[in-house]
Amino acid sequence: MGLDPADESARTPARGEPRARLAALRAQLAPPEEGRASRPILPLGLSALDAHLPGGGLALGPPHEIAPAGPADGVAALGFALTLCALHLSQVSGEALIAAAPGEPLPYGHGLLGLGLDPGRLLLLEAGGDGEVFRALEAALHARALAALIGLLRDGLPLKPGRRLQLAAEGPSPPLLLLLRPAEAGMPNGAATRWRIAAAPASRDRFGTLDRPRWRARLERCRNGRGGDWLLEWDHAAHRLHLPEPLAGDAAASGRSRA
Amino acid sequence: MAVAAEGPGGLRLLALDPAAQALGLRPGEPLGRVRARIGVPLRVYPAEPAADRDALLRLCRWACRYAPVVAPFGPAEASDGLYIDVAGASHLCGGEARLVDDLAGRLARADIPARIALADTPGGAFALARHGGADRIVVPPGGAAGALRDLPVEALRLDPGAVAGLKRLGLRRIGELDALPRGPLARRFGAALLLRLDQALARRPEPLAPLTEAAEYAAARGFLDPIGRQSDIVRTARDLMAEMAPRLERDGLGACALRLALHRVDGVVRALDLGLSRPERDPERVAALVSLRLDRLGRALDAGFGFETVALAVTVTGAMPARQTDLGAGSAGDGVGFLADALAQRLGRALLRLEPRASHLPERAGRGVLWVAGGGPGSVPRRSTGRPSALPPPSPSGGLEYSCIEAGNTASGSVAGPLSRAGEGSGPSGCGTTGTRGDGALDPENSRPSPQPSPARERGHVAFLHQDRGSTELGEQRCAQGAGHAPAIPSPWPDHLPPRPLVLFPRGEAACDVLSTVPEGPPRRFRWRAQIHRVAHAEGPERIEAEWWREPGEPRDYYRVECEAGHRLWLYRDGPHATDRPAAWYVHGLFA
């Protein structure tokens, strides 16, 4: 912008070794990948998962749909969403917003501490319906003031609000956008990924007491990626997701973890 | 036509229309005797004092167009009139006589019979309006004593006993009363008589209790051609805010709550209350909020034939120190604040945050409180609220007040509208600016009321001293979070609690058909929400006592159980185990 192009060209090749220079030149010449390469992502910290997701993590901006496997798994899905939120908030500053349709369970402050999420960084909005949730999320996306947005839907994400959210998320520094919906109502929409979460027996510590929550997470749908099925464990102290080792005696973890 | 109400000895006439008065009827007559006396059928309606009062208050709000200080009659006067303090405001209508003409004309167009008197004092204006003998009286300044001399003593707003006593003594006129020595009068009738006399003759001040206090910062704009489009209203609101902003900036204040009053051509006043999450004086932001609010109203904002006056008043101010502005975007808190305001205006919903409360009981130990910009956990925003108003707040019907003048509801007598010139204490607001002022009580949606303590929000933490393995983990977690962003304020959430569920029910949901291996122990199997749950693992108990200083209750034994399907629940047994009664089990929360 303000620089002299001659000065720029004189300085750039003089730095770094030839291989890096070549890579930089290639990057300059490469066709734009529709902005996908530059789109910010949230790496989940597990190579097994990140390899399935385009760009190596959850894309920030477009909505991600999280559904429970059954009606009883609603809290497990909420826990998984808050886990992703905690993962994101541990890396960036800012606050998260939960916009809930009436009747959807709102988190309990102290339970959030158990997931490693500071309740002070969470804002709640009790909306009057799914439509208000969408409007609130859209306003929050346009405002770009929050780091993560979670919508708790009663009916699900139809195509039109999904597309609107997608458009509102275009632009720099989008937040993480997660939408929780009931188990049924899987309609086509603009979501980037669709997860299905089921509760799984928690890990035990060395005294045999319940330790870390686990979920069976299935990536049902992933645009430009592959689906998958994992057993995930959340370490709230270190803010890390784990794939539990199929240890002897750990009946919960043995078997079905195919990554 | 007549209005009747329950009085001594049955129904009595309260108010009459001209046709009924022509029949020789008088208010106060028993209805039965009247019916027997007159030969024509009489339509009688029951009196509705509350509706009368509402109509009077609406008329008061409408009358704010003349001057900011408008007070309805108090208990000492009758219930069907109002005072307007036109001191310093009459020149806006081209003089006092023109103001009275204008007022009378508008009331006549609205089919409201009225008697208007303008005098130096409220007492004098009242006396002239009630007993002056003309519909429009304007007393020149200083002429009160002369104008009141021939009026009857009832005009002084005395109680009936004093009036009867005066008449017994042959004192019928105010002038006669005034000529007597004051000492014997005070001894005989008390100080109230002299007070009323002095108030009417401007020897002693009489403060009014205005319906709405004059806003310190207000601006209004009138239109020759009424406006009706949303963009015009928004632009006007922006201009009005821009007009007020320098004054607010000079005083280091910002608006915490605004009231936008839209005066429709046909006399209806629409008042929109806008609450802000932090002090604000940026015209663009205020305009954006007004726009969002009008978006939400949509067609409910019935513009009719257009609005002729738009008034914006700052109803609540807050300290807003000067700040160094950034070249780039504002800080993140600003964005959240604006988002909170936008959601409040657009959806009518406030942002909440979770706050712990010092309570042992899980359901009482936390709550959602309204999010306030810059308000860290536990901090209280500095807000200078308006002075309390003397009258009930406007109807909390979504912040949209409907003030209008109905024709035909004034059968309960004519509305007397005295105008007093010399308002003591409360001077008019600056020249060229008239405006209504909100009366402290704002729209419950937009201002920050204390949130309804709905059980769903009664969440939080429990201050129950259990030192176990949860503490070290939470301590580590706090450190891990502290690395992410500056931990300036220590978290108010205690970190020494045993694990708490992610979702807590407002009250425990009963679990039936509970089967335990040992009577004192956790359940092995139970039915909850029409499903059988088999417990694979249980931890506990954690005993939480009832808050006996609030209400007696049984201690609860909480267990954390994991079902075979992997769901983790928080169960409790109400009361300790006893052999003589069955144990009552409740599911109180769900873990992630």
From TrEMBL, chain A:
SUPFAM superfamilies (alphabetical): P-loop containing nucleoside triphosphate hydrolases
Origin organism of this chain? Methylobacterium phyllostachyos
Name used for this protein in its record: Protein ImuA
InterPro entries named among the record's database cross-references? ImuA, P-loop_NTPase
- Gene3D superfamilies for the chain: P-loop containing nucleotide triphosphate hydrolases
Annotated spans, Disordered? 1-21
Compositional bias of kind Basic and acidic residues: 8-20
UniProtKB/TrEMBL annotation, chain B:
The record places domain DUF6504 at 516-587
Alphabetic keyword roster: DNA damage
**In which residue ranges is the amino acid composition biased (Gly residues)?**
424-438
* GO biological process, any: DNA repair
Q: Where is this region: Disordered?
A: 369-458
Q: Which CDD domains match?
A: PolY_like
Q: Which InterPro entries match?
A: DNA/RNA_pol_sf, DUF6504, SulA_CellDiv_inhibitor
One of the Pfam families matching this protein, by short name = DUF6504
Keyword DNA damage in the entry? The reply is yes
- State the PANTHER family in the record: BLR3025 PROTEIN (PTHR35369:SF2), BLR3025 PROTEIN-RELATED (PTHR35369)
Question: Which named protein is this?
Answer: Protein ImuB
Q: What is the lineage of its organism?
A: Bacteria, Pseudomonadati, Pseudomonadota, Alphaproteobacteria, Hyphomicrobiales
